Amino acid sequence: MGESHALAPLAERTLDGWHRFVASGDRDLLAPLLAEHIVFRSPFVQSPIPGRPATLLVLTTVVQIFENFRYHRTFVAGSHDAALEFSADIGKWQLKGIDLIKFNEQGEMIEFEVMIRPIKALAALGEEMGNRIGPQLSRLKELAAARR
Q1: What is the 3-state secondary structure (H, E, C) of 37-73?
Q2: Rounded to an integer, what distance in angstroms lies between the CA atom of residue 109 and that of residue 88?
Q3: Which of 5, 60, 96, 140 might form a disulfide with 76, Cβ 3.0–4.6 angstroms?
Q4: How far apart are CA 18 and CA 12, in angstroms?
């Protein structure tokens, strides 16, 4: 305990790019930050969502849905692991969440896991995500599974 950690330089560069993407919503800023075989773990589903195309779809959609999105704190747990605490609004609900991000040696994101509370805000987000991208995300998951 009490150890101080810093992200590796390439991971730090990617995290800076992530913040630029979140501020702009520009999909072209996000794509190069993600490893081809990134695994996205959603708070809605038990099984991971594999691959860059599906992760791009989810993350570019969620930045359009959230209102008043803001990061509060960053926690670094080694040279290739970070946790970002955030808050946002969705409809009448305020939410808090954590993004858990793992980077590879090239600085690309290889795992991205999201946790959100309270449950009513999570349900509202899940409903809106399903309405916007449900069928498309299902197809991308099927394609990724077929490639394995």
Answers
A1: EEEEECCCCCCCEECHHHHHHHHHHHHHHCEEEEEEE
A2: 22
A3: 5
A4: 10
Share above pLDDT 70 across residues of the chain, in percent, rounded to a whole number: 97
Q: What are phi and psi of 60, to 5 degrees?
A: -70, -30
Q: What is the DSSP letter of 117?
A: E
| Distance (Å, whole) CA 60 – CA 25 | 7
**Confidence class for position 144, pLDDT limits 50, 70, 90:** confident
CATH of domain 9-147: 3.10.450.50
Query: 9-24 and 52-65 are packed helices; what angle lies between their axes, rounded to 10 degrees?
Result: 50
Q: How many helices (H) and strands (E) does the chain have?
A: 4, 6
Give the number of residues written for the chain.
Answer: 148
Q: Which residues pair with 34 in a beta bridge?
A: 109
Cα–Cα distance for residue pair 46/93, rounded to 1 Å: 23
User: Residue 59: is it exposed, middle or buried by C-beta count within 10 angstroms (0-12/13-18/19+)?
Assistant: buried
DSSP H or E run through 115: strand 109-117
